Each structure stands twice: as structure tokens, then as C-alpha cells.
UniProtKB/TrEMBL annotation, chain A:
Its main location: membrane. InterPro entries: NADH_UbQ_OxRdtase_chain4L/K (IPR001133), NUOK/Mnh_C1-like (IPR039428). This is NADH-quinone oxidoreductase subunit K. NDH-1 shuttles electrons from NADH, via FMN and iron-sulfur (Fe-S) centers, to quinones in the respiratory chain. The immediate electron acceptor for the enzyme in this species is believed to be ubiquinone. Couples the redox reaction to proton translocation (for every two electrons transferred, four hydrogen ions are translocated across the cytoplasmic membrane), and thus conserves the redox energy in a proton gradient. It is a multi-pass membrane protein. Gene3D superfamilies: 1.10.287.3510. The chain crosses the membrane at residues 6-23, 30-49, 61-84. Belongs to the complex I subunit 4L family. NDH-1 is composed of 14 different subunits. Subunits NuoA, H, J, K, L, M, N constitute the membrane sector of the complex. The lineage of its organism: Bacteria, Candidatus Handelsmaniibacteriota. GO terms for biological process: ATP synthesis coupled electron transport. GO terms for cellular component: NADH dehydrogenase complex; plasma membrane.
UniProtKB/TrEMBL annotation, chain B:
Keywords: Membrane, Transmembrane, Transmembrane helix. InterPro entries: NADHpl_OxRdtase_5_subgr, ND/Mrp_TM, NU5C-like, Proton_antipo_N. This is NADH-quinone oxidoreductase subunit L. One of its GO terms (molecular function) is NADH dehydrogenase activity. The keyword Transmembrane applies. Its main location: membrane. It is found in: Endomembrane system; Membrane. It holds the Pfam family Proton_antipo_N. The chain crosses the membrane at residues 6-23, 30-53, 86-106, 118-135, 141-160, 181-203, 209-227, 248-266, 278-299, 306-328, 334-352, 373-395, 410-435, 456-474, 501-522, 605-622. It is a multi-pass membrane protein. GO terms for biological process: ATP synthesis coupled electron transport; electron transport coupled proton transport. Residues 135-422 form the NADH:quinone oxidoreductase/Mrp antiporter transmembrane domain. Residues 69-119 form the NADH-Ubiquinone oxidoreductase (complex I) chain 5 N-terminal domain.
Length: 100, 623
């Protein structure tokens, strides 16, 4: 039996990697992947706690998160493609039209 | 009787509503509604007068109440009517003159674009004046008092496209406002001291008040009368009010509205009897104004303004009368004056009508040949005002002079001098306008014509009234004096039978003397264009510039007020008020500029902020 702490530490590490990816990378696709990583880190802790407490709620939430993530991927990739068609770049440093 | 009175009031009001809402569609039919409404009021007023003549009355012995208007713990205002001998006479005078002025206006205002509007205002005026006259409490009287002021303003500025007319309207309104302010304070003092504003209670309880309070109240009410009845120093609006249509000058600014002050003093005779000092002020102001205005009229060349100053002067006469306690004489003069001055104004209007709006007497002369009816009715009015027996003005003027002679010889002397000047200026007007050689411009002379019957018939009727109206007051014991004194109670009747004939002879001689001097100066020596152009002496300059009163007011009041208003505009409004508003806007603008710098548009920056924010929040929550 793997103790709960292992799962939570793994989850935290994955989440931190996701955050660092979002903050440091320039490529929009990579940032996008990092966001997915953060979502799945959260999913991991959800199922871990669900198992630990013997409750189904956390598992149900995981399904919701996965559904939302799938929708987000569809929309997000569409935005990225639209951006690329217009700006010929996927570097976030160069995408800065929406300001004062 | 109450039903009659209600309909007397309602008829003009219905006329206002019909003409006000549908007047444009009625077009020339507007005058049918207006004249019909006032005609019904007139007929009913005669009925009411006859009832009062037989001893009937309304609201004298008990407070009259039609309905309760304002009802609180302390203040109760009812709407009700007081019909006694005094208001019956006023009712008759107001509706009679109103009716004939309405008829006259049909001809005078023909073709004016504001035809229906004119009759709406005129009906509204009649309604307001009747509210004033029939009121049985001070609040209702004040409502009428203000409403006639409003109608006066509307009608003076009737031709509002003309700058001088709209200015004159404003001047009348503002000057009246000064007087009305005093009047209002008087009302508040009455309420504070008596606890009621009903005539019935006020006059019943007035003798319980301290002398000083009654005097203050009486003086404050008189301030209102000074404004409304154009007495010195608030008379300045009346000559300017001549900018309005002439029938308006006749009805409002000669016969009815301006006499409201005299009526008010007579109505409050209980208060003035209790406050001899205030009554003396009334008589003094009246005498001074009578002399002052008559002296200006001596040299005025504008036909309507001569009559305007004459009105101010005659109102002064009435105030002498009511001031010395001869209330019946004052009201009698009010009545005769309404007829002959209304007539004089209407004839002046007829002259204007024929002369294409020309008002300067120096450009008239010899009009008698072309407009005989106008000329001769004017002469009748002039003889009446000059105080030649047996016409109306003689009897009423003599009654006032007679009352003044007993106890106030100075007022009598002033009145006598004024009577001389009155006879002089009014006959100067006649000789310059209707007699002598013509000084009329060629193109005006070409279409000089007598006025249509709708104008001349009222002239003839009013001329007839000017002849006979005085005959009701030939005896101090009977006629109108006995009738009115029923309302004024036991006014001390002065035993003047002995010297009366002598006094009469003196005033007749004075009147004839004035006429004779005018004849010598303006008819025996032909008044030519050259003579008209010659400059006068110092006294003439002083008089013809109206004692520089308008200039003094301009310098003392208008200028400082307008400069203060300019200061308020430039400094308080533009600088401080607008400044504060603009400062608020500027503050928001600056802050939003600073805050908007956060929106860099760079996604990594947003992401970093979000993470940092989340970490900080988590730290605070978990800690």
C-alpha cells in the first residue's frame, strides 16, 4: 500500500513543473501543455484522496476536469491556429496586442 | 348667491381652458369664447351687486367656506368668498371694464398672430382679479395677487419678439416681486400673531394685538400695495408696462390690477384704523406719488406714457383717500378712475391704431377731423379726470380732497396742486393730439381712419359711464358713500357741509385753471414742429428725464446686482463649482491612467502575476 503522502508529493511536483513551464516557456504550445500538466496533477491528488477516504466524489470531479480540459484543448488550439495564421508566430513575447 | 359667485369665477376660467387648448383651431372664433365668458360674468356680477344692494352678503358675519384647501394642526386655509359692499363694487367695476376691453380687443388685435393667446391671457387675468377681489382670506387674496401679476407679465411681454417688451415684462415682474415680498412677510406676521389668515378672524381679533405689531403688519401689507399699485418708489415698472397691447394697459394697468393695492388697504381698513402711523404713511406716500408722477406727465410726449404717469398719480390720490380714513372716497375714485382712465387708454389705443403705432404726440395734431368719435370720447374722459363737474372725476376727487382737508391740510394742498397739473397735462395731450395743425407724417396721414365699431362702441359706453358714474356720489350721506360705509363700519363722518361748497369751488377753479393754461400754451400758440424740436430748460430736462429715477436705480441696484451676479458666475460657478466637477473628472482620469499601465498585453506577465497572487493569497489563508 502506497501512503497518501507519495501521491500528494508527486502531484505537487507535477504541478510545480507545470507552473514553471507556464512561466518560463515562450512557445504557446508548450505553455498549453504545461497547463494540461497542472490539470492532471490536480486530477492525481483528487483520485488519491478519493481512494484514501473511500469516497467517490473526487473521482467524479476528475471526470469533470477531464471533460473541461478536452473542451479547453479544442478551443485553445483553435485560438493558437488562428493566432498563427494572423501573426505567423507562436511566441508569447510577440503576442501583446491586448493592452491599454 | 354663492352659486352666482362661483359661476362669475368659473366663466373666465372655462374661457382660458377653451382658448388655451383649442384657441389655435378656433382662430378668429377665440374672441367669441372670451367675450362670452366675461359677458356672462358681467351679467352675473350685476345680479350679485343688486342682491348686495338689497342687503344680502356672503362671508361677512360668518367665515365663508367653499372647501378646505390646506388643513393642518395650526394652519387652516379655506377657499371661500366674501361678498360685501366693497367687493360688490369691485366686482362690478372689474367685470364691466373687462367686458368692454374684451370687445374693444376684437378690433384692436385683429390679425395678430397671437390672437387666441391674447384672449387666453386676458381671460386668465379676469379670473385672477376676481379671485383677488372675492377672496375671504389672505392666502386666497395672495393667490389672486400673484396671478394678476403673472398675467400682467405675460401681457406686457405679449409681443415677446420685441426686446423692449420682454424687458418691460421682466421689469414689472421683478419690481412687483419686491413689493410682494413685503406683502408675504405681512401675511406671515398676521399668521404668527393671530393664528389665522381668514379675514373674519383677523379683523375680529386685530384689536387685541399690540400697537407696534399692527403697525408693522399694516406697513408690510402696504409695501405689497406700493409694488402692485405702482407707488413711489416702486412705480417704475408701470410706464414701461406700456409696451404691452393698449387694451391691456387700459384693463390691467389703469382700471383694475393696479388698483388692487387700494382695494387691499380698504379691505384691511380694520388694521389701518388701528395703526394711525401706517395710515399716515399710506396717505403720505400717496400724496408724494400723486405729485411726483403728475409732474413727470407734464412734459412726457409719449401719449401712453402720459396716461401711465397719470395713472400712477391718480393711484396716489386713491391712497390719500384710504390713508386719511376716507375709504369710501378712495374706492369711489377707484371706480370712476377705472371708467375714465380705461376710456382714455382705449382712445389712445384707437389713435395708435389709426397712426400705425405712432405714440409721439409731437407727430400728431388735428386728429379730431379724421377720427371724431375717438376725439370726443377722449375729451369726455379728459374732462372727467380734470375734475370738471358734473363728470365722474370731479365728485370722487373732490370727496378725497374734502376728506384730506379736514385734518390733513398739507395733503389737501398737494392734492390740489396735483389736480391742477392733471388738468394741464391731460389737456396738453388733447390739444397736441386732436386739435391744432396736423404734424402727422405724410404716409401715415394717408391712411388715417376712424376705428371700427367694435372699438368705438366700448369708447362710447365708457364715456357715458365717465359722465354718469360720479352721480352716485354727489352726497356724502347717500349714494355710494352710504353703501360702502356699510362695509367700512363707523368711519368718522366729517361734518363738512359748511365749507364743502367753497372747497368744491376751489377745486373746480383749479381744474379749469389747468385747462386754461394748457390752452394758452398749446392751442392759442400753435404747436409746430419747430417748437417741438426746441430744447427745454433745466427743469424741463429734469422732468423729461423722469427725475433720473431709472438711472439712479440702474446705478444703485441693477448695476451692483448684475456685477455681483457676474462675480458669482465667474468665480463661484465657473471657478469653484465647475472646478470641483472638472477636478473629479481629472482625478479619475489620472488614476485610471496609472492603473491601466498594468495591462501590458504580455501573457507571461499576466501569468506571473496570477501565480504570485495565488501564492500570496494561499499564504494568508493557510497561515
Amino acid at each position: 500500500m502506497v501512503p497518501i503522502s507519495h501521491y500528494t508529493i508527486l502531484s505537487a511536483v507535477l504541478f510545480a513543473i507545470g507552473v514553471l513551464g507556464v512561466l518560463t516557456r515562450r512557445n504557446v504550445i508548450v505553455i498549453f501543455m504545461s497547463v494540461e500538466l497542472m490539470l492532471n496533477a490536480v486530477n492525481l491528488s483528487f483520485v488519491a484522496f478519493a481512494k484514501h477516504y473511500g469516497e467517490a466524489t473526487g473521482q467524479v470531479f476528475v471526470f469533470f476536469v477531464m471533460t473541461v480540459a478536452a473542451a479547453e484543448v479544442a478551443v485553445g488550439l483553435a485560438i493558437i491556429i488562428a493566432l498563427f495564421r494572423n501573426r505567423e508566430t507562436i511566441n508569447v513575447e510577440e503576442i501583446n496586442l491586448l493592452k491599454w | 348667491m354663492q352659486t352666482y359667485v362661483i359661476w362669475i369665477l368659473l366663466c373666465p376660467l372655462i374661457g382660458v381652458l377653451i382658448n388655451g387648448f383649442f384657441g389655435r383651431r378656433l382662430g378668429r372664433g377665440a374672441h367669441v369664447v372670451a367675450c362670452g365668458a366675461v359677458g356672462v360674468s358681467w351679467a352675473l356680477s350685476i345680479l350679485v351687486f343688486l342682491r348686495v344692494l338689497n342687503g344680502d352678503a356672503l362671508g361677512v358675519d360668518v367665515p365663508a367656506k367653499l372647501y378646505s384647501w390646506i388643513s393642518t394642526d395650526t394652519l387652516n386655509v379655506v377657499v371661500g368668498f366674501r361678498v360685501d359692499e366693497l367687493s360688490a363694487v369691485m366686482l362690478l367695476v372689474v367685470t364691466t371694464v373687462s367686458f368692454f376691453v374684451h370687445v374693444y380687443s376684437i378690433g384692436y388685435m385683429r390679425g395678430d398672430p397671437g390672437y387666441a393667446r391674447y384672449f387666453t391671457f386676458l381671460n386668465l387675468f379676469v379670473f385672477s382679479m376676481l379671485v383677488l377681489v372675492l377672496a375671504d382670506n389672505f392666502v386666497q387674496m395672495f393667490v389672486g395677487w400673484e396671478a394678476v401679476g403673472l398675467c400682467s407679465y405675460l401681457l406686457i411681454g405679449f409681443w415677446y419678439e420685441k426686446k423692449s417688451a420682454s424687458d418691460a415684462g421682466k421689469k414689472a415682474f421683478i419690481v412687483n416681486r419686491i413689493g410682494d415680498f413685503g406683502f408675504l412677510i405681512g401675511l406671515l406676521m398676521i399668521f404668527a400673531n393671530v393664528g389665522s389668515l381668514d379675514f373674519y378672524f383677523v379683523f375680529r381679533d386685530a384689536h387685541n394685538l399690540p400697537q407696534a405689531t399692527v403697525t408693522a403688519i399694516a406697513l408690510l401689507l402696504f409695501v405689497g400695495a406700493v409694488g402692485k399699485s405702482a407707488q413711489f418708489p416702486l412705480y417704475v415698472w408701470l410706464p414701461d408696462a406700456m409696451e404691452g397691447p393698449t387694451p391691456v394697459s387700459s384693463l390691467i394697468h389703469a382700471a383694475t390690477m393696479v388698483t388692487a393695492g387700494v382695494y387691499m388697504v380698504a379691505r384691511c381698513h380694520v388694521l389701518y384704523d388701528l395703526a394711525p402711523a401706517a395710515a399716515a404713511v399710506v396717505a403720505g406716500v400717496g400724496a408724494f406719488t400723486a405729485f411726483f408722477a403728475a409732474s413727470i406727465a407734464l412734459v412726457t410726449n409719449d401719449i401712453k406714457r402720459v396716461l401711465a404717469y397719470s395713472t400712477v398719480s391718480q393711484l396716489g390720490y386713491m391712497f390719500i383717500g384710504v390713508g386719511v380714513g376716507a375709504y369710501a372716497a378712495g374706492i369711489f375714485h377707484l371706480m370712476t378712475h377705472a371708467f375714465f382712465k380705461g376710456l382714455l387708454f382705449l382712445t389712445a389705443g384707437s389713435v395708435m391704431h389709426a397712426m400705425s403705432g405712432e405714440l409721439d404726440m409731437r407727430r400728431m395734431g388735428g386728429l379730431k377731423r379724421r377720427m371724431p368719435v375717438t376725439a370726443w370720447t377722449f375729451v369726455i374722459g379728459a374732462v372727467a379726470i380734470a375734475g370738471v363737474p358734473p363728470l365722474a372725476g370731479f365728485w370722487s376727487k373732490d370727496a378725497i380732497l374734502d376728506a384730506a382737508f379736514h385734518g390733513h391740510p398739507i395733503l389737501w394742498a398737494v392734492g390740489l396742486v396735483t389736480a391742477f397739473m392733471t388738468a394741464f397735462y391731460v389737456f396738453r395731450l388733447i390739444f397736441m393730439t386732436f386739435f391744432g395743425a396736423s404734424r402727422v407724417d405724410r404716409e401715415v396721414e394717408h391712411h388715417l381712419h376712424e376705428s371700427p365699431p367694435s372699438m368705438t362702441v366700448p369708447l362710447i359706453v365708457l364715456a357715458a359711464l365717465s359722465v354718469v358714474a360720479g352721480l352716485v356720489g354727489t352726497s356724502e350721506q347717500g349714494g355710494i358713500f352710504a353703501f360702502l360705509n356699510r362695509a367700512f363700519g363707523d368711519v368718522e363722518g366729517h361734518e363738512g357741509a359748511g365749507g364743502k361748497l367753497g372747497l368744491m369751488a376751489v377745486s373746480v377753479l383749479v381744474g379749469l385753471g389747468g385747462i386754461f393754461v394748457a390752452y394758452r400754451l398749446y392751442l392759442a400758440r400753435p404747436y409746430t414742429r419747430e417748437r417741438a424740436a426746441r430744447p427745454g430748460g433745466a427743469l424741463h430736462r429734469l422732468l423729461s428725464s423722469k427725475y433720473y429715477v431709472d438711472e439712479i436705480y440702474h446705478a444703485l441696484i441693477v448695476q451692483p446686482v448684475s456685477r455681483f451676479a457676474g462675480f458669482l458666475w465667474d468665480v463661484i460657478d465657473s471657478l469653484i463649482v465647475d472646478g470641483l466637477v472638472n477636478l473629479t473628472g481629472l482625478f479619475v482620469k489620472v488614476v485610471s491612467w496609472v492603473v491601466s499601465r498594468v495591462q501590458t498585453g504580455r501573457t507571461p506577465f499576466y501569468a506571473t502575476s496570477m501565480v504570485v497572487g495565488t501564492v500570496v493569497l494561499l499564504y494568508y489563508i493557510i497561515r
